[in-house]
Design a protein that fits this description.
Distance between the termini: 191 Å
CATH superfamily of one domain: Baseplate protein-like domains
Shape: rod-shaped
Structural class: mainly beta
């Protein structure tokens, strides 16, 4: 049954106070939908359509009974004017009226919000749209988590807001009151109120038609996500509806990192999927029907149709004084969740950003090596460490790889699964203010350089560089301060040509085992200061050719034996004092000749034996004193042994024995004194003593004395066998 209405009026802000007569209108309103009012009105006045755009307008429907009028408020979004009868100056004005919230469809933005709940993020957009606080009501009873990072990019403000609300399961309705519109955000049925005109509508007088529609739907959901801070954690949640048939919906990513949020989102998803399994639709002549309100139908032939219904959608129509509507509803016990809104735009490529950090910092990262960035599209002006969430940084596909972008770097940002809320740094770019480290294209051969500048602002850089220019190929490595190389097993270095090592300070080499050094050609060692060589075991220094050692002064200390062996000649020249001290013995073995020149004194102190063998001629020249102190001194000479000295002193604590296989000759330029308790001179063949013209010859059988004068004192007589000569 269609009920005739008394009148329908159109009011436009700034126009004649007399309402315009409406010829036709259609209003579509629904939960989580911005209603649309399309109206055709007649006016005798020429109205410029452009002048009424964005003006407030309202339609009032006045029933022919005592019910209050139904009013629709909004702003004019479209306007057009047609001449119906030019002679009578009658015009047809066609308008599209929508709620103030529809202005969000016109605006588009790129923004980042951090550490906000969805209601906070939506409230920020409504505040920027200058929607009065009294027009907004939040009727939510769930507890919602703060989102660490939410991005709006390339989508309208309305798409952004409705997407966030739908993901959380929050619906909204725009309520038209007598004076103004009001938007209510809700997440359960406590926001629903009974129709003000009538909580119960009769069938078929007020509700003309009422029928139900059943629809097959999914009855199981599964959500899964991944948390890189807890990679081993299985973030999977399942939820089954009643009478599960296995028609599952699997959602990944599930947009949760905590199980409690995952369980709630799974419930919201299942309620959304099952919302339309039983719908009740009908027609009526009651203009007060509105989304988000409840009523019950009485007098229907089916008793199960008398349940309390929640209106989801209404289409109102008016034409030439007649009104009717179509409505869609669900039983009140059915949770009302919004359809998923248009998804966020998927990033089809890589974006550019600049690494940010705390004020004055050159390096800024998390314990997982993440960085923060400022996107080139970000108009917030935030350039410090609050510019974004932490972004994971792509690394080389190697264990232990770690690349930390510096503050100010221009970097490439990609998105996990194209999700704006999951950015990551995947590369580094140069620009006109941050040029490559080498001039191009002049040094294009240096096709690869890994360089890290000293921080903070040191001016140096660690670098590994590859130069591929033909004939100048080079692998260059630079450590701006220290360099440490650790090899857990063998290290092999092969150099086909020359190697130059320059050390500005000290050089230490520690070898736990053996150390072998082989030089095929010449080797030059120049030491500007002291050189110390300590060997706990044996030390062998073999030289096939000559060995020349020139030092300002030299001291050798040998804790055990010291043996010197020379196959050729042995020459030693000492400008000053030459001293040897041996705790044990000294043994020298010279196959060839030996020459030693000492400008000063030669001192040797040996606790035990001292042996010196010379196969050739030994020549020693001492400018001053030669002192040898030893337990036993042995000198073996294969040829002649000649000593020339100004004076010689030999002291023996015990006896001294001089043994010669051939003759022993003593030539004394001055006097010779032998002072002893007993003097024993023995010879196997003859003993001859010759002084000037006097000669004494002692044979085994006789003694012959020959002298110019022989004087015997204290001799009584001569034996007959005795004889003497005198000249």
């Amino acid at each position: 049954m269609i009920e005739a209405l008394h009148r329908a009026e159109l009011h436009i802000e700034g126009q004649d106070a007399t309402p315009l007569r409406i010829a036709y209108f259609e209003v579509t309103e629904a939960i989580s939908f911005l209603y649309q009012v399309r109206v055709i009105a007649h006016t005798p006045t020429l109205v410029e359509p452009e002048s009424i755009l964005a003006k407030k307008a309202s339609i009032e429907i006045h029933p022919d009974n005592d019910d209050p009028p139904r009013t629709f408020h909004g702003l004019i979004f479209e306007a057009s004017l047609f001449a119906v009868d030019a002679s009578s100056e009658r015009y047809e004005l066609r308008l599209l009226i929508r709620p103030r919230l529809a202005q969000l469809e016109i605006g588009q933005n790129c923004r980042i919000t951090q550490e906000m709940t969805v209601s906070d993020a939506v409230g920020l957009v409504l505040q920027e749209a200058e929607l009065p606080e009294e027009m907004v009501e939040w009727s939510v009873n769930e507890t919602y988590e703060e989102h660490p990072y939410i991005t709006q990019f390339g989508e309208s403000d309305y798409d952004y807001v409705s997407r966030l609300l739908a993901e959380e399961g929050i619906s909204f309705i725009v309520v038209n009151e007598l004076d103004e519109e009001r938007v209510v955000f809700f997440d359960d049925d406590t926001a629903f109120e009974p129709l003000e005109a009538a909580e119960s509508l009769s069938y078929p007088h007020q509700v003309n038609e009422l029928n139900e529609l059943h629809r097959a739907g999914s009855d199981k959901v599964c959500l899964r996500d991944y948390d890189f801070t807890k990679p081993s954690t299985d973030l999977t949640t399942d939820l089954d509806g009643e009478a599960t048939t296995g028609r599952e919906v699997y959602l990944h990513p599930g947009d949760f990192l905590e199980t409690s949020r995952g369980d709630r989102l799974a419930r919201v998803a299942l309620e959304r999927l099952q919302r339309d399994r039983r719908r009740i639709q009908g027609t009526s002549s009651i203009p007060s029907l509105a989304p988000g309100f409840t009523f019950s139908c009485v007098d229907h032939p089916r008793a199960d149709m008398g349940v309390e219904l929640v209106i989801l959608r209404v289409v109102h129509r008016w034409h030439d004084g007649s009104y009717d509507n179509e409505f869609l509803s669900v039983p009140r016990e059915t949770p009302v969740r919004p359809d998923l809104a248009a998804p966020a735009p998927v990033i089809g490529g890589i974006q550019v950003g600049f690494v940010t950090g705390a004020s004055g910092a050159e390096l800024h990262g998390s314990e997982l090596g993440q960085s923060k960035v400022r996107f080139v599209w970000d108009r917030s002006g935030i350039t410090d460490d609050t510019s974004s969430t932490w972004l994971r940084v792509g690394q080389f596909a190697l264990p232990g790889s770690m690349v930390m972008p510096r503050v100010g770097f221009e970097v490439l940002v990609d998105y996990e699964m194209g999700d704006h809320d999951r950015p990551m740094v995947v590369g580094h770019l140069y620009n006109a203010e941050a040029m490559p480290p080498y001039p191009l294209p002049d040094e294009a051969g240096r096709s690869c350089s890994l360089q890290t500048n000293t921080t903070e602002g040191g001016g140096g850089a660690n670098e590994m560089r590859f130069d591929d220019a033909a004939g100048a190929e080079e692998l260059f490595m630079n450590a701006s301060y220290d360099q440490t190389t650790a090899v857990e097993n063998d290290a092999v270095v092969g150099i086909q040509a020359n190697e130059t090592v320059s050390i500005g300070a000290n050089h230490s080499l520690k070898v736990t085992g053996s150390y072998n050094s082989s030089v095929g050609g010449a080797r030059t060692l120049s030491v500007g200061g002291n050189q110390t060589l300590a060997t706990t075991a044996n030390y062998d220094d073999g030289t096939s050719g000559n060995l020349d050692v020139t030092v300002g002064s030299r001291k050798e200390t040998c804790g055990g034996d010291l043996a010197e062996a020379t196959t050729g000649s042995f020459d030693r020249t000492v400008g000053g004092l030459m001293a040897f001290t041996a705790i044990q013995g000294i043994n020298r073995n010279i196959v060839g000749a030996s020459t030693t020149k000492v400008g000063g004194a030669w001192l040797e102190v040996v606790a035990k034996d001292r042996n010196s063998d010379c196969g050739g001629t030994r020549t020693e020249t001492i400018g001053a004193l030669k002192l040898i102190k030893a337990n036993t001194v042995s000198i073996a000479c294969g040829a002649a042994y000649v000593q020339n000295c100004a004076s010689e002193t030999v002291k023996a604590g015990g006896s001294e024995t001089i043994t010669a296989k051939a003759a022993v000759g003593l030539q004394v330029g001055g006097s010779m004194s032998i002072d002893a308790a007993n003097i024993n001179i023995s010879g196997e063949t003859v003993v001859i003593a010759k002084i000037g013209g006097t000669k004494i010859e002692v044979l085994p059988a006789k003694v012959t004395i020959k002298s110019g004068t022989i004087k015997l004192t204290g001799v009584k007589h001569l034996q007959s066998a005795a004889s003497h000569e005198s000249s």
